[in-house]
Amino acid sequence: xPYDPHEPxxxxxxxxxDFGPIxxxxxxxxxxxxxxxxxxxxxxxxxxxxxxxxDQNEVYVKMTLTAPNCPAAESMxxxxxxxxxMIPDVRDCKVDITFDPPxxxxxxxxxxKLTLGFM
Length: 119
Prior knowledge:
Blueprint: H1 20-30, H2 42-45, E1 48-53, E2 58-63, H3 75-85, E3 92-97, H4 110-115
Parallel strand pairs: 2-3
Antiparallel strand pairs: 1-2
């Protein structure tokens, strides 16, 4: 089925999924990290594409940025890695940046859209 530009795009991450005990703590940490140029948490912006916690409590986060040339390209992944690593019982955290799929404002939560004047 072709893409309908009038239909919102679904976020690559199902925010309603059960992330488990460690994953839920990761989500809470991500809700406290803000894009330095936009007054909205990266979670609500829809920048998080994947959260994976393995059996050894090692966390993998795949995220994107609002644009490939985003000034936060170096600082934001480091901040995510540092803060997630501070969660008790997390052994390690790896963060990768991807642009596949490219970021789209439809990935934002309704709260973020309201804050930024999209609604």
